[in-house]
DNA sequence: TTGCTTACTTACTACTAAGTAAGTATATTG
DNA sequence: CAATATACTTACTTAGTAGTAAGTAAGCAA
């Protein structure tokens, strides 16, 4: 719910009302569960961190190139739903977020980067993924491509994601 | 002024006051020049489109790989200043923007994509730039890498931009 | 000098935001 | 059954937002 709002309108462009009204409750009911808006943001991020950890754990036994495809599929679904990625949305508003939220955003970014770096490193060892340079630089590039492909899709049309994702996978596998 | 605010706080997170106060004028003075906030946004985007056109025209005589480096330098400066790219910032808030602003954001994205696609195409012909796949897909990837590298730099530290930019140039040249 | 334009200020409206305090219905538990 | 916790509602405060209407001071133009 709040997740969807952050991904469509941005953290600073939605209000408690936007969450309360569709649930047919009052404004204050949301304040009961999340006293400050920052608590709402933290909830959204923590939820995402947990979901990401669960997903990657589930993929653990797969070959690295297939794990990569799984990650791409997550973004493909978001593209289809008209959502952008949480990192992308919150990075834009980063300077306006509470220190607690900033810390969580950093944590979320770090864990994605760490997982992706490790995936690429192992994939290269197993000759399933091919790239030049360090695994970390390549992980940063993939993260940034996935993130911005959703942003560009919004502005230039959803084909942008498809073109980027296809080329990215072709380059690596 | 407004440009800087959009690039740091985002379009929905700054107010007329943020522009008026540093100039030591009243709120209404800004409304005199830009009646609605959308007009302010349009002013910022039009300014960027003009600046981009002027820059690329100035680079026209350079070899394509050097034109690419010039583009990277623009982003490098923004990274240094703690700014994110206009496209990135406005794409996040896209759904909340007026139709007029959305149209300008689209126009800005299209012209950057068009220029970059052409630059890559010519660069490949002249054997100065090397890549697989279509020039358009590659242009989208470069755009998205530059865009998100500024976003990730904010969250993960400014080294993120440097790593992405360096690897990207190494891949292409 | 009169009239007109530019670039404001003052003072406001209408609205929306986050957040809170106090009260209430319902369910759970000792 | 009484006490308590949960999940709200009602009604409010405070503070900020975009935007406007009316007035004004300075400069320029015929």
UniProtKB/TrEMBL annotation, chains A, B:
Domain HTH tetR-type: 1-52
Regions recorded as binding DNA: 15-34
Domain of life: Bacteria
Gene3D superfamilies assigned: Tetracycline Repressor, domain 2 (1.10.357.10)
SUPFAM superfamilies listed in its UniProt record: Homeodomain-like (SSF46689), Tetracyclin repressor-like, C-terminal domain (SSF48498)
Keyword Endoplasmic reticulum appears in the UniProt entry: no
Presence of keyword Transcription regulation: yes
Coiled coil: none
MF terms in GO: DNA binding
Keywords attached to this entry: DNA-binding, Transcription, Transcription regulation
Pfam families: TetR_N
InterPro entries associated with the record: Homeodomain-like_sf, HTH_TetR, Tet_transcr_reg_TetR-rel_C_sf
PANTHER family (alphabetical): HTH-TYPE TRANSCRIPTIONAL REGULATOR YJDC (PTHR47506:SF1), TRANSCRIPTIONAL REGULATORY PROTEIN (PTHR47506)
Protein name as annotated: TetR family transcriptional regulator
Organism: Chitinophaga niastensis
């Amino acid at each position: 719910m709040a997740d969807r709002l952050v991904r469509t309108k941005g953290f600073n462009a939605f209000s408690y009302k936007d969450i309360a009204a569709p649930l047919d409750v009052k404004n204050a009911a949301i304040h009961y569960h999340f006293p400050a808006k920052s608590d709402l943001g933290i909830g959204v991020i923590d939820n995402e961190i947990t979901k990401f950890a669960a997903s990657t754990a589930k993929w653990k036994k797969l070959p690295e190139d297939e794990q990569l495809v799984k990650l791409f599929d997550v973004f493909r679904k978001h593209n289809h739903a008209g959502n952008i990625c949480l990192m992308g949305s919150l990075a834009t508003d980063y300077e306006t977020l509470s220190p607690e939220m900033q810390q969580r955003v950093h944590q979320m970014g770090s864990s994605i980067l760490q997982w992706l770096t490790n995936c690429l490193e192992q994939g290269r060892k197993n000759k399933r993924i091919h790239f030049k340079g360090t695994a970390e630089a390549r992980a940063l590039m993939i993260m940034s491509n996935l993130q911005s492909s959703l942003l560009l899709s919004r502005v230039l049309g959803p084909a942008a994601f498809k073109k980027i994702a296809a080329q990215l996978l072709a380059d690596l596998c």
